Amino acid sequence: LQDDQKKSAGLSSTPKPKVSTKFADLLAFSGPAPERINGRLAMIGFVAAMAVELSKGQDLFSQISNGGVSWFVGTSILLSVASLIPLFKGISAESKSEGVMTSDAEMWNGRFAMLGLVALACTEYVSGGTLL
């Protein structure tokens, strides 16, 4: 087949690179899992911290010392396993990305949530109380 016929038939002349499903490759510094998992945890953590602060009036450090560590560990384990399962099967987040909910949007939201948690902690530490 010629290149034009291959493109119209959905065939490509260069094969897609295989994504490694090895544990060490997935969790490598530049691998697909670390930033995505940390971003997802940060998004959940930021929303949960703000919700508890609004409902109970506890600052972030009080939330952590009043049972927040066990919730964090449990959520971290659950979310990490749930995030790794598709990667072990060779399914990337980019392949499931469409419309508004793209993998790039998830990465940026996670990065902003990480910054938000740090800013929340620093602001509450400096002010000596809750943000709101």
Question: What brief labels describe this structure?
Answer:
single chain, 132 residues, mainly alpha, elongated, Early light-induced protein 1, chloroplastic-like, transmembrane helix
Structure characterization notes:
The protein is 66% helix and 0% strand. The protein has five helices and no strands. The longest helix has 29 residues, at 60-88. The protein is elongated. The mean pLDDT is 84. It has one domain (28-89, 102-132).
Weakly predicted, low-confidence segments: none
Number of strands: 0
Structural class: mainly alpha
So what's the oligomer here? single chain
SSE string, helices as H and strands as E: HHHHH
3D shape: elongated
Helix content: 55-70%
Number of domains: 1
Can you count the helices? 5
Average per-residue pLDDT, rounded, comes to: 84
The profile of the biggest β sheet is: none
Measured between the Cα atoms of the first and last residue, the distance is 66 Å
Beta-strand residue fraction: under 5%
Question: Mind telling me the C-alpha Rg?
Answer: 20 Å
